[in-house]
Amino acid sequence: MNIIEVKNVSKSFGSKQVLDGLHLGVPKGSIFGFVGGNGAGKTTTMKLILGLEETTKGDIFVGGEKVTFGNTKTNRITGYLPDVPEFYPYMSAEEYLTFCGEFTGLKKAERKQRIKETLTLVGLEGNKKRIKGFSRGMKQRLGIAQAMLNNPELLICDEPTSALDPEGRNEFLELLASLKGKMTILFSTHILGDVERICDYVGILDEGKLKVSSSIEALKQTYAKSQIELSFDEAADFSILIAELNALIEQEIITEVEKINEQNQVIISYNKDYTDVAGVLLESLIAKKIMPVSLRKMNPSLESIFLEVIR
Amino acid sequence: MKNIYYFSKKEFLESWRTSRLLILMIIFLILGIMNPLIAILTPDIIQMSFGDSLPVNIPEPTSLDSWGQFYQNMTQMGLIVITLLFSGTMSGEVSKGTLINLVTKGLKRSTVVISKSIYLILQWSFCMLLAFFVTWAYTLYYFTDDNSPHVFLAVFPLWIFGILLITTILLTSTVSKNSYEGLLLTGGFVVLLFVMNIFDKFERYNPITLTSENINFLQGASNIGNYMPAMLISFFLSLLFIYLSIVILNKKKL
Ligand SMILES: Nc1ncnc2c1ncn2[C@@H]1O[C@H](COP(=O)(O)OP(=O)(O)O)[C@@H](O)[C@H]1O
Ligand SMILES: [Mg+2]
After folding, report:
1. Confidence check: pLDDT of B221 > 80
2. Contacting residues of B for A156, CB less than 8 Å apart
3. What is the rounded distance in angstroms from the CA atom of residue B2 to the CA atom of residue B8?
């Protein structure tokens, strides 16, 4: 079941079309990485889902209920961390969270407990300063705290890691990963490493449409290049090797060989089953007594997939 | 319902921590003390500036002069200060984006409007009563005449007008982008009321009457019942303004 359904949504600002018939489904319980370049429309999409912007065309459903622009009932089940979260500067972090806990209906004892836990989780415990004096990173942490405070069914985070230092980023990703199973998380980013680390689904937004939407595994399989990387030491005789590999191309076991001189590597492309190809390859290398120092089945990085998708 | 209480509490904290409440309390307190003092001192000041050359005798000040000062200062200072300090109450939240975290957690926008009106009305009532009781106490102390029998009856219309002004501030700050626009629109509304006052026919219906006839109410020279239409209109306009604020905020980009 999908907790978010974006159906054929278009959005224009004046004459500028940002989204063009966007379809997006976020499965309940997933961690969904929403990827796209700067200005691709990630923030706009999230605001539409939260009823903060009005769709030009199309409908959005959250938890099966239709989202209406402005006051929308669907916000009962959401928590949102905006790209630049804004607070009341005259409050302390704890006061702000108390206020949020009050109107979301947390009972007093539970509220105190949750606030303590959450502040510790984001590293702001015992901080009595007014928010006025917070750094950007601290505000980001408080933003995370307020978004997850009341355990929303659906947590939406807009580029949550971009304002954090490497350590904070790491902590935050672990935090999100630890929430898996408790809530559905939709988070946007342009850092693909983050997605690869914690997400189980990914959507790639480009030119107003979702170019890719699938589980990370399926995506990698679709875009998996059948390639093997062989490395040799200096002593290896490359002319014999290349002759041997060309013979394998003749026999249609492999399709292509690319030699990378400086690193004593060759990259071999094939279109048959990996086990068969690697078996034949190793046998012929043994026969010629050319032993590789490593053999690696190449896995595509999300980075390369992303570049290929938006090309 | 509970959320209205929580949000009003936030409004109170905001007013307090940003010093606005303190400023209001000091100003209204000073107004309260000044009213009887000015009434007492005015003849002496005139005497001093003109010396004995003044041909007519200046009458002794009475409690009516003290209350006259009160109604003049409340409208010309008190209400204006409130308007200045709170004309950005909604536009500020919208332009800074402070409501986003809250509404995306399910806080109803109507709660924001209703809480703000409740807090601002309570604040106005408190400030007005502060100045009122101080003026009253000093007036009783300095003036022993019984020219001002209907003190409560006289101040009630002013209170109603203050509520109308506050809901006007709320509506104008909801439609405008910043506090200056809000201020301008609120000012425009008050000017409109004054302009309409030119027509004698409307006088009984015009809310502005509630700030100009108080001395007559005080003496019992004017029957407050005559101004019931103005009070009812103010009351219904206030409700209408709150309702419109909710409708507009519900469709506003935050
Ligand atoms: N309120 C707005 N008015 C006009 N253009 C906007 C507005 N909000 C966003 N845009 C435009 O929409 C595009 C997508 O913006 P955004 O959703 O913020 O992208 P992303 O979050 O993916 O970086 C950008 O070109 C941006 O300039
Ligand atoms: Mg963005």
Report:
1. no
2. 104
3. 10
Please indicate, yes or no, whether residues A194 and A267 belong to a single structural domain of this protein. Answer: no
Does A206 lie in the same domain as A68?
Answer: yes
Question: How many structural domains does chain A have?
Answer: 2
- Range of A238's domain? 226-299
Burial A192-227 (b: 16+ CB within 10 A, else e): bebbeebbebbbbbbebebebbeebeebbeebeebb
Q: Region B25-53: what's the mean pLDDT?
A: 83
Residues 85-124 of B with CB under 8 A from A: 96-98, 100-111
* Ligand 1 atom with least separation from CA of B253: 1
Do A192 and A270 lie in one domain? The reply is no
Tokens of A208: 């107003």
Q: What is the ipTM of this complex?
A: 0.90
Q: Give yes or no: residues A35 and A101 share one domain.
A: yes
| Residue A84 pLDDT exceeds 90 | yes
Q: What is the pLDDT of residues B77-100, one digit of tens each?
A: 999 999 999 999 999 999 999 999
- Nearest-10 Cα torsion for A199, A200, A204, A209: -130
Does B4 score more than 90 pLDDT? yes
pTM of the entire predicted model? 0.87
Whether A63 contacts chain B with CB within 8 A: no
Residues from chain B that touch A80, judged by Cβ atoms under 8 A, are 100-101, 104-105
Nearest to B101 among A53, A76, A146 (CB): A146
Residue with the nearest Cα to atom 24 of ligand 1? A39
User: Which ligand is closest in space to the CA of residue A18?
Assistant: 1
Pocket lining: A36 vs ligand 1, CB cutoff 6 Å: yes
Q: Contacts of residue B18 in chain A, CB cutoff 8 Å?
A: 90
Domain residues for the domain of B210 are: 2-251
Read off the pLDDT band of B55 (50, 70, 90).
low
Helix (H) or strand (E) holding A7: strand A2-13
What token pair was written down for A44?
């706009």
